[in-house]
Design goal:
The protein is mainly alpha-helical. The protein contains four helices and no strands. It starts with a helix and ends with a helix.
Length: 102
């Protein structure tokens, strides 16, 4: 079961990384994609994207551990949670290292 949880936590962290990358691309190229917009709708759209992103990343990182916890697999849930955190920290450090070296 440990290898399964480790693998699923890696998938969750990679999914979070990919999602964050896509949102980052949209935000950094917003003017090219949507044009220059300084109105209320652009502010509302950004805030909606922000809230939706919090929900999606929360589900990716916490969904599995919470599900396991509610099913009574408390040790597995805690391991999964910390594996998620470990993978996310590793991906973040590799990304930062890539920024430094490139």
């Amino acid at each position: 079961m440990k290898n399964k949880v480790l693998f699923y936590s890696l998938l969750c962290a990679l999914g979070t990384f990919v999602y964050i990358g896509l949102v980052g691309l949209i935000i950094s190229n917003g003017n090219k994609i949507f044009g220059q917009a300084d109105n209320t709708l652009s502010s509302i759209s950004f805030l909606l994207l922000f809230v939706m992103s919090a929900f999606i990343t929360g589900m990716l990182m916490l969904g599995g551990p919470v599900w396991n916890y509610l099913e009574g697999n408390k040790k597995t849930a805690i391991k999964w949670l910390f594996y998620n955190l470990g993978w996310l920290v590793t991906i973040t450090l590799v990304s930062l290292l890539g920024l430094i070296l490139l």
